[in-house]
Amino acid sequence: MSSANITVIGSLMVDHIFFINRLPDIGETYPANRYQKAPGGKGANAAIATYRTCHTNPQSETSPDAAQDIEINVKMVGAVGKDPEGEYMLDALRKNKVNTDDVRVVEGKGTNTGMMFVMVEKINDSMDNRLISTTGANAALKPEAFATEKDLCNGNKPDLIITQLELELGTIEKILETAGKAKIPVLLNAAPAITILSDLYRYVTHLVVNETEAAILSGREVKEVSRETWGEIAQEFLLEGVENVVITLGAEGAFCANAETSGLVHAFKIDPVDPTGAG
Fold first, then answer.
1. Helix, strand, or coil here: 161?
2. From 47's CA, which of 72, 78, 186, 256 has a CA 20 to 30 Å away?
3. How far apart are CA 157 and CA 185, in angstroms?
4. Entry pTM
5. What b/e readout covers 246-264, taking b as 16+ CB neighbours within 10 angstroms?
6. Range with the poorest average pLDDT among 79-88, 145-154, 180-189
7. Interatomic CA distance for residues 244 and 264, integer angstroms
8. What is the DSSP letter of 157?
9. Domain 2-10+45-110+139-189, what fold?
């Protein structure tokens, strides 16, 4: 069996999730229906989702991938604090078969593991969330740590790099530049939306954005992202040098485009539980 390697570079955060019927007013204490602690951060979410997507039954201990022709290995590059929350994150990644050899454990003042506080509010039949985050150890990932191909890959060149915009912007831009010059394909999930240097789009193989991110990165209002403009927006990114563009559209599915084709891919109908990490 041949193998392929995917490296995910991104944030690691512990999510503290409160499920509520409504938001509390200023100065009000309001009880939650339920509390849940979960591994999170856009980097960790991407790493676990990548492994699960590439394997038929990642929770199985007995040869879950016997029917696959290619074994997909997923490695996480990130940082956690030397604290119980950091151990929690590393354990969660390992349980989900993600390699954590390149996750840094950092010590010192202000280097606690990143955390996200999430309020999930049920409005009619939908679930909406509001999030507050603290960066913590994620701030230890600086641009100079990814200045060369050797820095980026630790001697093992991956077949794909996946990253997001939850780390310091300069760090993400250096990752794109270094990977592009090393001819390593990159999938950029541009969340949370921050405008990147336009000359770096040529290093992005796959760009994934939702409607809000598509608006911000293309200089539009969110209301201007519609069925009539999906193709136009995707074409702008393609002209910047991106090879493949995916605009995710929630219940409507996703609009996909490259130089050869474009079109809407419809979504499966589901009963939403919590949109946290859905990207």
1. strand
2. 256
3. 11
4. 0.89
5. bbbbeeeebbbbeeeeeee
6. 145-154
7. 14
8. -
9. UDP-N-acetylmuramoyl-L-alanine:D-glutamate ligase (3.40.1190)
Residues with Cβ within 8 Å of 34's Cβ and at least 6 positions away in sequence, in order, are 18, 19
Q: Phi/psi of residue 204, each to 5°?
A: -95, 115
Phi, psi (degrees; rounded to nearest 5) at 78: -170, -160
How many CA atoms within 13 Å lie on the side-chain side of 56? 11
In the chain, where the domains are located: 2-10+45-110+139-189
d(CA 224, CA 250): 16
Separation of alpha carbons 199 and 20, rounded Å: 43
Q: What are the tens digits of pLDDT across the range 195-237?
A: 998 999 999 999 999 999 999 999 999 999 999 999 999 999 9
Per-residue pLDDT averaged across 176-198, rounded?
Answer: 94
Looking at residue 63, what is its pLDDT?
47
